[in-house]
Design brief:
- The protein has one helix and twelve strands; from the N terminus they run ββββββββββββα.
- By secondary structure, the chain is mainly beta.
- The structure holds thymidine-5'-diphosphate (TYD).
- Thymidine-5'-diphosphate (TYD) is lined by residues 33, 35, 37, 46-47, 49, 114.
């Protein structure tokens, strides 16, 4: 399945809004792990790698940032700035995250437990992997 924005349920309420997601229902994988990125100093970027197996769903819980996507052929930039949608990133996708606003909070939901050997951190290696 392709990289895409997925809208999440949004329960509007005078007391404040609420959104949620469930494993395999609102996102197309089983949730095994969650991490978040915060206190990013201005001008920094994160990511700059691909995964062989891991699928991700990225939400801007607060503030905004850009996710740069590269499938080995096409490149796209997704600007995330609301907590009621996120970006689905399938395995085998090079991705970087940058342009973090002050106090932004990026939530990353993953389909696998952490495994350093699932990372491809070298871009040329990524391109070779995509040609296999
Ligand atoms: P990394 O995935 O390279 O961060 P980013 O893609 O945001 O630049 O992870 C940075 C460090 O954190 C790396 O040493 C591995 C560690 N880490 C874990 O131990 N568990 C995790 O679930 C994640 C995402 C990272």
């Amino acid at each position: 399945m392709e990289v895409r924005i997925i809208d999440l349920p949004k329960i509007l309420d005078r007391r404040g809004n609420l959104s949620f997601l469930e494993s395999n229902k609102h996102i197309p994988f089983n949730i095994e792990r969650v991490h978040w990125i915060y206190d990013v100093p201005g001008g920094q970027f994160r990511g700059g790698h691909a995964y062989k197996q891991t699928k991700e769903f990225v939400i801007a819980l607060s503030g905004s940032f850009d996710v740069l996507i590269d499938n080995g052929v096409d490149k796209d930039i997704y600007h995330l700035n609301r907590s009621y949608y996120g970006l689905y990133v399938p395995a085998g996708t090079w991705r970087e995250v940058n342009n973090f606003s002050t106090n932004s909070l990026a939530l990353v939901i993953s389909s696998t437990l952490y495994d350093a050997s699932d990372y491809i951190r070298d871009y040329d290696e990524f391109l070779k992997y995509k040609l296999k």
